[in-house]
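Objective 1.3, modelling of assemblies. Example input:
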Amino acid sequence: MNAEKTALPEIDIPYVKQACSNCIMRELCLPVALASNVLDKLDELVYLRKRFKAGTHIYHAGNNFHYLYAVRSGFVKLETLNEDGREQVTGFYMMGEILGFDGIATDQHMCTAVALEDSELCVIPFDRIEHVGQEMEHLHHHFYMLMSREIVRDHTMMMLLSGMQGDARIAAFILNLSQRFHERGYSSYDLVLRMKREDIGSYLGMKIETVSRVLTKFRDQGLLEVHQKHVRILDMNGLQKLVGHHPCK
Amino acid sequence: MNAEKTALPEIDIPYVKQACSNCIMRELCLPVALASNVLDKLDELVYLRKRFKAGTHIYHAGNNFHYLYAVRSGFVKLETLNEDGREQVTGFYMMGEILGFDGIATDQHMCTAVALEDSELCVIPFDRIEHVGQEMEHLHHHFYMLMSREIVRDHTMMMLLSGMQGDARIAAFILNLSQRFHERGYSSYDLVLRMKREDIGSYLGMKIETVSRVLTKFRDQGLLEVHQKHVRILDMNGLQKLVGHHPCK
DNA sequence: CGGCATCTTGAGTTGGGTCAATGGTCGTGG
DNA sequence: CCACGACCATTGACCCAACTCAAGATGCCG
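Predicted structure (tokens):
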């Protein structure tokens, strides 16, 4: 909580757009409903958006932590470095989701965030969030909720990784995306997987050959239509059964 | 955030001990160093400790969320329920660690916390934390750090689960415990695994037979001495090599 | 001592990893 | 516009780590 953080440090990628008032967070479909005055406050605090081209880094593991990022459009993956330097995908973020919480613990980011397609993010200076006045304690509650949500999500992921077989992992993954798209007003049946098979494999703990094989199998079973990154769910129930129906180790 | 939370709801297990002032959190070896005045404030807010017998629940999935719990002594496991009702261990907490963050997101606990041995926990009313005044914003920072730490830890766990083989998982698990004991002033070589093989297996995503076999193998290789729950590390380096040395899938 | 829970060990099976080759798609430049 | 190459995805054959089932061994408590 050192004072020099209050003066915003130079951001390592050029600003793209100065925000007009009351328009940045407002349009953002946050996963938790916010009171109007909280949104106003957020718009005050969040004064810029930034575009990232597909493949560019939003932050690197080791970077000093200053900002959280809310995804306005696009798709972002989070990679965690393990002991031996290899990277592993530990999360995907889409419109309305916030990333960067990994940096608070040590004031340095522990993960690397990469845009999977051209994306636009809101840049949220975290120290401003922390220093909002007492009248804005709603804001703290909101961020506690967001972090808790991430923790719960990670626990779900751990369960999936340690308890389920390949089939169930892929099914759970597809259903999860489907649900998140649905919540944002998109079709829950027609999905575009913005990430490559390699990312899916890394995230789900399986090799890309296996990812591919499972997708083919699902297609043969009439559960999905698969054309490259485009996936159409034909049998939602069938997928749910795969997840729930004890195909656990 | 609703007002009735300010009045503390009945806690579902009887209080054991009313705290004397300035003694509850003080003695707690928190994972993040705290300024003295922050500790004072915490001692004000945290006004009770509670004992839990081995095997008893601290909270259940579905319980309304009111408190965080700091482990003063003992050992706690966290279990997450998956779709089909089976439970899976998603964390272990020892002295100085805080659990309960899973409840903030929806105001209901998403996991079940169980004492693995007789344990004493500090009960921290979360709404008091949220409503501390501006002068205590350090406290918010502290809790943001704790939550971020949990997120980072979960990411590490996800990596371990999806990227490592059985040998490496067990090695990483033992080294992790060793480190945490060491940080708390205990030997990093002589460990007592408070949980059963089944819990380890659930946590690490392997069957108890495999856990057992790996431990036996490590014993045969001279890495460990194993007597039931007591484990002595003979070759720390060897274990570290297993984790780092790409025995990944 | 018996009964119960936990842990270990063995034998056989399988899901998913490895290696290797083929097939698609896209972008660039002639 | 087509041809080339780079990159990504799919498919097949083979193999091994970890699962399953089953039997013992060990320890703990009354």
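The two ends of chain B are 45 Å apart (CA to CA).
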